[in-house]
Amino acid sequence: MIARALEWQVLSVLAFWRALSLDARVVGLLGVGNWLLLFFNHTTVQAAQDDVLWRLFPGIAGPLWLVLCGALAIAYPLRDRRSGIAFGARDRALHLAAIVVAFVVLPTLASIVLRETGKPYTYVHDGAIMVEEAARKLLNGQNPYGADYLDTPLVFWPMVNNPALYHFTYFPDLFLITAPFTALFDRLGLFWDERYLYLPAYLAACAAAPLLVGGTDRRLALAAATALNPQLFPFVVEGRNDFFVLAFVFGGLVLLQRERRSWALLLLAVAASAKLHAALFLPFVAVYLVASRRPASLRAAWSSLWRPAWPAALLMTAVFLPFLTNDFGAFWDDVVRYNAGGAAWSYPIAGMGFSALLLALGVIPSRQADFPFAVFELAAAVPLGLVALRALWREPTLARMLIGHAVTLLAFLFFGRYFHGSYAGYVAALATPALFLGSGAPRRRLRPVATAAALVRVTAE
To answer: Using N-to-C axis directions, what is the helix angle for 216-227 and 89-100, rounded to 10°?
Structure first.
């Protein structure tokens, strides 16, 4: 009797699942899954240590927030099943937007308020503090590379002997874009938080990615898969910059798909000038640009690459050249040696990658020890990259370009000195649009409509 009851329950669940639309399946799976993780797993840096997200809210507000997230996540597939066609595209988009606001926007705003009303080194990731203070160093006439950060709130951030006090690990675009905002806010006596940039960038990335595919259900599903990436969206709350980079990457891909190549490359150049992750995308973009034109000669191949790429090349030169010529040693020490090992204060071995395995096996004696990770990174990433580039040359599609880059980047990062959970989330976010690309592609030309509005107005499809 019990076995029959269990069998009936399983069959009922399977029937319910099969009857759901694509977007309801994705929202249901990721929404409910992430809701369960909110209770114990999804954490963010708070006052002195990481803690679960719901503790950002005072008193009864924390449990009520959990109830809200769960109710919204469960209600989407239920509305799809019960209302069917009456649960229209606009209602679906608005419901998904409510889920995003509940899961990400509310805790991010809570973190900003707690930081602003408390101490500037609490409720925020040290990477965000680094960018804010690097922008101030630049405004004060200092080179952010080579300068130390002992005179900033970063010195109080809850990490013993934080090597970030002596190195700025990111590319220049992050503090160059931030500098005007910090200058304005500081002049007006207002509190600047890097998440004032990162949160809109997260929303922009979630709105841009669906424009790569056609069909209401596919667009909503891709939006949900991007917004509710379990290894990435919790990091928006504490101020990591992954979605800031992805916003430019996805925006560039949308323009590239619609043959706005020069504008696409400008956006991708901004991303590549902010973080190494995006810079490693450029070889794949270059091969796609040439291969998709099928040039008959070397001259034609060069023309198909250089004509759309020269504005982006000029932008990247303007971004990097001043810091390379001012003090190349400082730039190399901060960006390369600090991350790879060999600097006076290198980043400690951390995360869940190859380095963590060697540390657990005793091959590496301590987290601060130097080790030739670059050899393993190149040994893994270069062959995979060459295979992926060859496949892209034979069949130049956005899906192949994204998958090839994602696999190559994963190999490079996994065998590095540290491999954080956000790295896995970034790679997954890159590969996600490729899962939905195929039939039902959108029109080639970009309509003059705002990206965020396009997601809400999916009924036009």
So the answer is: 0
